[in-house]
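Please produce the structure of this protein holding NAP.
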Amino acid sequence: MTGTIPAACIIGWPVEHSRSPLIHNYWLKTYGIAGEYRREAVPPERFAAFVRSLAARGYVGANVTVPNKEAALDGSLPDEVAGAVGAANTLWLDGGFLRSTNTDVEGFLNNLEACAPGWDRDLGNVVVVGAGGAARAVVYALLTRDAQRIAVVNRTRHRAEALRERFGERVAIAPFAALNDLLGDAALLVNTTTLGMAGQPELGADMARLPGHAVVADLVYVPLRTPLLRAAQARGLRTADGLGMLLHQAVPGFALWFGKTPEVTAELRAVVEADLGSSAA
Ligand code: NAP
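Below is the modeled complex.
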């Protein structure tokens, strides 16, 4: 407990790698808000009890990361977004009730808008690679826009099928072998897998197949400029990176806990980039 100073935390297992404390403590300092944001390493078997004791521990809310985003729904009152996505990453106490939402949806959309203004104008076909938790947030986000067909390409077919069952007929599923053939009329390509992450194989999509107006987004942010983003930029396409999404998804949580809607600025980005040990080159 830290008296009357509002505190929030990120709950994960592991949690050491998280940049959320850096982001939220930067905003607390920038806006001169007396508050704290901490890391809480909580193993899955202790997660439910920890969440029940948030208020007693002096917290006004929390972020939730791997592996508890699904479990976070059970111990809280999810809003429409978290319910539709089937996972929550942000919790807050509201008059004695613990509520939850999924800010990856807003983070994904706002980052795209910041990096590629007008990206969703006459949005036609979209290709989403991956069918995990992040893909659910991305597909839900795209369904709130004008995507006509969202082709989900995933290694494990039944996970892609689960996405179609959850989100309906605008979602089509395809194997990896079909990826390049789907790019010809795609307005947006999104990588939601771990492919391209440091130490992982590359996605290997052929950028030459995308139309010149297409936008390419990658959720991976280590490295910052993934092989996919490099290839897209070399082809002259507009891109949106995973760090931008990470920064934008943090905005609603900060506003809920600390009562101020913070800004994603170049300075904040530079602070996190420096911490990631990467260059924006
Ligand atoms: P997840 O639920 O574990 O899903 C992982 C996805 O990657 C699945 O579709 C999986 O395919 C695929 N995959 C993993 N290794 C693969 C390989 N060797 N070949 C082909 N596909 C492979 O994870 P998640 O929570 O969705 O997160 C996915 C990525 O998004 C992570 O890199 C995470 O850091 C990132 N992310 C970023 C943000 C952000 O703000 N930038 C937010 C959320 C997530 P299978 O189904 O076949 O296993």
